[in-house]
Amino acid sequence: MKIAVLGTLSIHLVAEVDRLPRPGEMVPSRGVGREPGGTGTLQAIAAARLGAEVTLYGRVGADPFGDEILSSLRGAGVEIAAVERSVRDPTGASLLLIEPTRQFLAAQAGGANGGVDEAYIARFLPPIREADAVLLDLAIPAPALVSLLAGLPPARPIVVLHPIPPRDLSLPWERVDFLVGSREALASPTAGSSPEEAARAGQALLTRGVRSVVITAGPDGAYLIEGAGATRFPGHSLPVVDPTGAADAFRAALAVKLAGGRGPYEAAGFATAAAALAAARQGGPLSFPTAAEVQELLARPALP
């Protein structure tokens, strides 16, 4: 199965703190770490770990951070020939302050990611059209996103879109097969509390033309909304160590199963298990499970 990923590529600078600072306050850090990040990077690595043939599209700077990200992608088996390097803009970067319960503050500089424009899409649209599934997010500049969605065939590849950062965009929503986001991302804090609440939250998105909506609810699992109803996929009884990579694992796993011809119910169950495994490990690319690990978890009973 072939997965195309178009998203942000960034380096994450992570500071572990005992508590998040108040405005104007400085708090001590237990150290500062660095790891490859960005939705594009993480989804691509997660999908490759699950056995897919993954090609990543995007841009980094001609700098050491860009070298580091590309090296990690190459090591994970991701095809990076389409990742362009900017001599003008630096690699995107994010600064995160994370406290022990994994709440965080973050600041992001888009850098070279902002250079993904309509001309870039025109160069790489033909191979993207040949993929079985495409993973996208709203951090891509809007003109490029519109150009890509408008240029895809009507039925294939399957499009999985993450609505982060939340923006009110005029997109060809009818070309989005699965809109996948947390209840917070979908601006509905109660969306993951019951199938009825999930269905209500999903209806507004379905009326835009999106074909299906998936609401992730952390340890509680996920909801698939199609038509008037919602189906709940329970979580799994694993300890939550670090949830920061779980959402990327969920979307990648969903896309991999859909690309392989599986139906949305099987794909959503598989994705819920992949997210649970990622959350049970320390975050970052090394937290993403393999397909065999996901299948092993699926053989155990799920939470009620």
UniProtKB/TrEMBL annotation:
Keyword Transferase among record annotations: yes
Pfam families: PfkB
EC numbers, comma separated: 2.7.1.15
Alphabetical UniProt keywords: Kinase, Transferase
InterPro entries: PfkB_dom (IPR011611), Ribo/fructo_kinase (IPR002139), Ribokinase-like (IPR029056)
GO-annotated molecular function: ribokinase activity
Any single Gene Ontology cellular-component annotation: cytosol
Every Carbohydrate kinase PfkB domain range: 2-290
Statement: the UniProt record of this protein carries the keyword Kinase: yes
UniProt protein name: Putative Ribokinase
Organism: Candidatus Bipolaricaulis anaerobius
